[in-house]
Amino acid sequence: MKNKIFEVGRNLLSEVEETQMENIEKAALLFAESLINNGFIQAFGAGHSVAGALELTHRAGGFIPTKNIKEPAGGAYESIENVGSTFMKKVDVRPEDVVVIISNSGRNPLPIEIALKSKEKGAKIIAVTSLQASKGLKSKHSGGRNLYEIADVVLDNRIPEGDSMIELEGVDGKLCGMSTFTTSLLLQACTLRAAEILLERGFTPQVYLSQNIDGARERNEAIEEKYIERLYRI
């Protein structure tokens, strides 16, 4: 029996590859320049978008100078203005950093304010969002802009409004949200291309090994010492 999700996934993969290579190159260049300048790649996602942030930060095969921006309420107040602005007063974002913000709709105040405040601190902003959805949605922030209108680089995840993509008779609503799938592809593509750029410029990328490999934890922790002042602080 065929499972339609594989067809949907293949089509999305092809669409992302065909449309986003230029944006991937721009984002990867920001990654590489940040790491060359001793910056950090930081990532934020509210609600389920946190999966994208976790895909980029502190994981096997990813860069070591990365941080997940962990808003303590877990996005529960994503649609309430000034939560993000207040939270960002305590977040360590610096001019040499890149902040990746994942939001499918890009309309809620929390990710918008994290983008705005990070930009005020001098960081570059990469948005991972659905342009199809976001361009048709009114911002819930008083500034009137959605996330894609604030970012320096936009990675379009090519997901329709509502995220879910498969209709099934007898089910009230579509099934299978796919934004995590394309977000992961986009961010891994940026990681790979950034590593290539670093090598081209004579820099060796510092990446995590899986801690399930014998000796990897000790090896990772030894490298982390170089970044420890920033790695585990908010």
Could you characterize the architecture of this molecule?
The termini are far apart. The protein is 41% helix and 12% strand. The longest helix is centred in the first third of the chain and has 33 residues, at 4-36. The protein is an alpha/beta fold and 234 residues long. α1 packs parallel to α6. β3 (98-102), α4 (109-120) and β4 (124-129) form a beta-alpha-beta unit. The chain contains eight helices and seven strands; from the N terminus they run αβαβαβαβαβββααα. It has helices spanning 4-36, 50-56, 83-87, 109-120, 131-134, 179-200, 216-224, 228-231, and strands spanning 41-45, 66-68, 98-102, 124-129, 153-156, 164-166, 175-177. The protein has a single domain (4-231), classed as 3-Layer(aba) Sandwich (Rossmann fold). The strands form two sheets. Strands 2-1-3-4-5 form a five-stranded parallel sheet.
N-to-C series of helices and strands:
HEHEHEHEHEEEHHH
Question: Termini separation (Å)?
Answer: 48 Å
Low-confidence stretches: none
Largest sheet: 5 strands, parallel
Overall number of domains:
1
Number of strands: 7
The assigned CATH architecture is 3-Layer(aba) Sandwich
Q: In DSSP terms, counting alpha (H) and pi (I) runs of 4 or more, how many helices?
A: 8
Estimated structural class: alpha/beta
Give the overall shape, derived from the CA principal axes: globular
**In percent terms, what proportion of residues is strand?**
5-15%
Kindly state the percentage of residues in helix. 40-55%
